[in-house]
Design a protein that fits this description.
The structure is a single chain. The chain is of the alpha/beta class and 159 residues long. The protein has one domain: Rossmann fold (3-Layer(aba) Sandwich), CATH 3.40.50.620. 44% of the residues lie in helices and 18% in strands. It has helices spanning 16-28, 48-59, 74-81, 93-109, 129-137, 148-158; strands at 4-9, 31-37, 65-70, 85-89, 114-118. The chain is globular.
């Protein structure tokens, strides 16, 4: 049976930091499913469909990666996808407390669900979607923080 993991997130937009985590997860798992959460409560800058397309464009050359959207409990998605491992990225101590609580909550709902925490490379440790969104709002340069295909799609959207 394939070792399968889910990497869930809002990916608003997907950054080089996210891609670093996906690449690391691909070294561990046979299949990495990037699950793009609808997350309307977070009021994302980009539509759910755009965010799915961003991830597809950024990972299209990685055979082990599949992309799906979801608007449900992560444990329900893990049941549907028959994946009992969740991948989460940790950039700083501030991420850890929230991620630990979510990992425990998910485990309380599904006992055999494991969460693995991966750190991005040092060069990507400062990159977050919120940083990218802030820079975009003020017309700043983000090409070094995004996959070229994602950057091009965002430029086309703005024009």
């Amino acid at each position: 049976m394939k070792k399968r993991a889910i990497y869930p997130g809002t990916f608003d937009p997907v950054t080089v930091g996210h891609l670093d985590i996906i690449k690391r997860a691909c070294k561990i798992f046979d299949e990495v499913i990037v699950a793009v959460a609808e997350s309307n409560s977070k009021k994302p800058m980009f539509s759910h469909q755009d965010r799915i397309v961003f991830v597809e464009l950024a990972t299209k050359e990685w055979e082990k990666v599949k992309v799906t959207g979801f608007d449900d409990l992560l444990v329900n998605l893990s049941e549907r996808l028959q994946a009992n491992t969740i991948i989460r990225g940790l950039r700083a101590i501030s991420d850890f407390e929230y991620e630990l609580q979510m990992g425990y909550a998910n485990s309380s709902l599904k006992k055999d669900l494991e969460t693995i925490y991966l750190m991005p490379s040092l060069e990507h440790a400062f990159v977050s979607s919120s940083v990218v969104r802030t820079i975009l709002q003020f017309g700043g340069r983000v090409d070094h923080l995004l996959h070229p295909n994602v950057h091009q799609m965002i430029i086309k959207r703005e024009n």
